[in-house]
Design goal:
- Helix content is 33%, strand content 30%.
- It is an alpha+beta fold and 202 residues long.
- It has one domain: 2-Layer Sandwich (Ribosomal Protein S5, domain 2), CATH 3.30.230.
- It has a four-stranded mixed beta sheet, covered by helices on one side. It has a four-stranded mixed beta sheet with strand order 5-6-10-7.
- The two termini are 28 Å apart.
- The mean pLDDT is 95.
């Protein structure tokens, strides 16, 4: 699974196979919002499609796991793979904006995502959902996915759902905000020389 590199060299792919999951994933930072998603978790497909479209990334995922147990391992491992490809795709991080803060409304719900591409993995999550399930999808897996993404990408990620009444809307706002914040933070700023840090390295 690879992307045409004519438009960007900021891309990466990974294959990860365990006794619990079998995942192939390719990610391009500078894409066109195109996703090709084949997983055993339909709600996650929907969220990743939103993330890709609103971040203007390209994302291909083929993932199969032990969903006869539950969706946990599949969702977790996709988060791991996405985080690892994001970190690899960004390389030395020269010229990036580094920081971003984005609010996204989804009808009655409002979510905020704040990112620092810091090489210091940290995750803060403030969300209380009215329901523990969206269809067959457990809402606690949103935390699992985002935490593993932040850990493997080595980014600081703060996610706040300020309010909402519909759990689907609240989670959808999170993934749209995640895509838009990551897009902004990874954008190349022509004013930046080297990496945006007084340390000289990220």
């Amino acid at each position: 699974m690879e992307f045409n590199q004519e438009n960007s060299t900021r891309n990466a792919s990974i294959s990860r196979k365990t006794n619990e999951t079998d995942i192939k994933l390719a990610f391009s930072v500078d894409g066109t919002g195109v996703s090709e998603l084949e997983t055993d978790v339909p709600f996650l497909n929907h969220m990743l499609d939103l993330f890709t479209k609103h971040g203007q990334f390209d994302l291909k995922v083929q993932a199969h796991g032990d969903i006869e147990i539950d969706d946990h391992h599949t969702v977790e491992d996709i988060g791991i793979c996405l985080g690892q490809t994001l970190r690899e795709a960004l390389g030395d991080k020269k010229g990036i904006k580094r920081y971003a803060s984005v609010f996204v409304p989804m009808d009655e719900a409002l979510a905020q995502v704040v990112i620092d591409i810091s090489n210091r993995p940290h995750f803060e999550y403030r969300a209380q959902y009215p329901s523990t399930q969206v269809g067959s999808f457990s809402t606690e897996l949103v935390h699992e996915f985002l935490w593993k993404l932040a850990l493997e990408a080595r980014i600081t990620l703060h996610v706040i759902v300020h309010y909402g009444q519909n759990t689907h809307h609240m989670i959808e706002a999170v993934f749209k905000a995640l895509g838009r914040a990551l897009d902004e933070a990874t954008c190349i700023d022509p004013r930046v020389t080297g990496v945006p840090s007084t340390k000289g390295v990220l």
